[in-house]
Design brief:
Enolase-like, domain 1; seven-stranded mixed β-sheet; five-stranded antiparallel β-sheet; alpha/beta; FAD/NAD(P)-binding domain; 25% strand; 16 helices; 3 domains
Length: 482
């Protein structure tokens, strides 16, 4: 066994771990990443990048067909082989050579193997050949191991060789028939992608579609999927799955059956904490990690584990299960660890440099379905649950001149959630073609707590879809303009 010493040790080499390490090194410390799979993590090879590559060609084709002249120049269907080849390039053909080169350039050390906590600030890394390396941290150990697909206890499911998001993202052949269990983001996006690539898709959800966002957004996506030929079953459960040489059969709670060649399970995530040695610090393996506002791991009573040397960032702490928010946490945490190492106090006040305020006030998300969904901050439902005094302002996106020019028969909706006591935006959701580009304006308004009377002076260019801001503010103006 060999031993190595660094200022900070990060278990997990995905985007979150990379950002922690980069900020630590920029702060003058040494850092080592421990990774047993591909450097770059889930997002690079089995999630964000490859799945969006699967979706993009179909989105471009829909955009062309939404215009009369451009649509006449387009004939035929998508070539799945070409789509998959482009996907392969964005997944770097599942090679992390480029990511490792970046680590070397950034001055970040890489220790290959499976890391387990074996003592105070101590991680034992086991390589594939069985040899071990002990990695010691002077200041902190950060867990950034992310999450994996959750497989529900449906009778027969495990024996039917189901796909998870990984198999769907890395697919090499489009099945003729695909059944999807789960109507969240992964299920909805993959129903969009595989339907466009020629599969007959059946989606089964025990809730409405996209339950994490405003209900009108899910309704638009549901209608579009059905119009595209997807069979959508809502408010029903899968009670049994049977697999054989001819494919799989799903039995639903309403008595219906679904025949498919493959079944994709998209029913949530589970933390990658089962084999990290958490028992050495008094925590239960397999649980989500509780953290305080500094991202220090805490026990059930809210007290820091040990003397506060253990941190968790990204999916594994369950604050926001989105890559960009995990990276945001990683940047703040890496900077804070470097500040503490210098004997200084981090800035953890509201919107402070080392705080992760956006996780609770301005979490952002784009769902790349047809149509797109863009959301930031609180929904109407979440606002009500939090007991906030709010105004809900809705507007038909299709009535905006820029949207009508963007695509014939443009359909969509936008919503502002306004804090009625302060007249500032605390939530925004839009659904419609290409609404993702509206999102950052809303994010800035929420993070900057821009009063509506000042936001009124942010004049949107005409004719663009961004004119929705003028229409929303006009609708709400009687409440804040004298």
């Amino acid at each position: 066994m060999t031993e190595k010493l660094f200022d900070v040790v990060i278990i997990g080499g995905g985007p979150v771990g990379e950002n922690v390490a980069d900020r630590v090194v920029q702060g003058g410390l040494t850092a080592a990443i421990v990774e047993h799979e591909l450097v770059g993590g889930e997002c690079s090879y089995w999630a964000c990048m490859p799945t969006k590559a699967l979706l993009r060609d179909a989105a471009a084709l829909r955009a062309a067909r939404a215009l009369p002249a451009a649509g006449r120049t387009v004939s035929g269907d998508l070539d799945p082989t070409a789509v998959l080849a482009r996907r392969d390039r964005f997944a770097a053909n599942w090679s992390d050579t480029g990511q490792v080169e970046w680590l070397n350039h950034a001055g970040i050390n890489l220790v290959r193997g499976h890391g387990r906590i074996t003592g105070t600030r101590t991680v034992t890394v086991t390589q594939t050949d069985g040899t071990s390396t002990t990695v010691q941290a002077r200041h902190a150990v950060v867990i950034a191991t992310g999450s994996s697909a959750f497989l529900p206890p449906i009778r027969g499911l495990a024996d039917a060789a189901p796909w998870t998001s990984r198999e769907a993202a890395a697919v090499q052949k489009i099945p003729a028939r695909l059944a999807i269990i789960g109507g969240g983001v992964v299920g909805s996006e993959m129903a969009t992608a595989f339907s466009a690539l020629g599969a007959q898709v059946t989606l089964v959800s025990q809730t409405r579609l996209l339950p994490g966002v405003e209900s009108f957004a899910g309704e638009h996506v549901t209608a579009a999927l059905r119009a595209a030929g997807v069979s959508v079953h809502l408010d029903v459960e899968v009670t049994e799955v049977r697999g054989d040489a001819d494919g799989v059969q799903l039995t639903l709670s309403d008595g219906a059956t679904v025949e498919a060649d493959e079944v994709l399970v998209a029913t949530g995530r589970t933390p990658n904490t089962k084999d990290l040695g958490l028992d050495h610090v008094g925590l239960a393996p397999g649980d989500w990690l509780r953290v305080d506002d500094t991202l220090a791991v805490v026990d059930a009573a809210g007290d820091p584990v040990g003397d506060g040397w253990l941190y968790a960032a990204g999916d594994v702490n369950k604050r926001v299960l989105l890559t960009h928010h995990g990276k945001y946490q990683g940047r703040a945490l890496g900077d804070a660890i470097a500040v503490r190492a210098r004997g200084e106090q981090p800035d953890l006040g509201p919107w402070g440099r080392h705080a992760v305020t956006a996780d609770v006030r301005a979490a952002t998300q784009v769902i790349f379905t047809d149509p797109e969904v863009a959301a930031v901050g609180l929904s109407a439902e979440a606002s009500a649950a939090a007991g906030k005094n709010v105004r809900i302002v809705d507007y038909d996106l299709g009535a905006v001149a820029g949207a009508a020019l963007h695509a014939d028969d443009y359909r969509g909706q936008a919503r502002m959630v306004v804090d009625a006591d302060r007249n500032v935006l605390i939530g925004f959701t839009a659904v419609g073609p290409d609404v993702a580009e509206l999102l950052h304006a809303a994010t800035i308004a929420i993070a900057g707590e821009v009063p509506l009377h000042r936001l009124w002076h942010a004049v949107p260019a005409y004719p663009t879809i961004s004119e929705i801001w003028l229409r929303l503010l006009e609708t709400d103006r009687p409440h804040w303009a004298s």
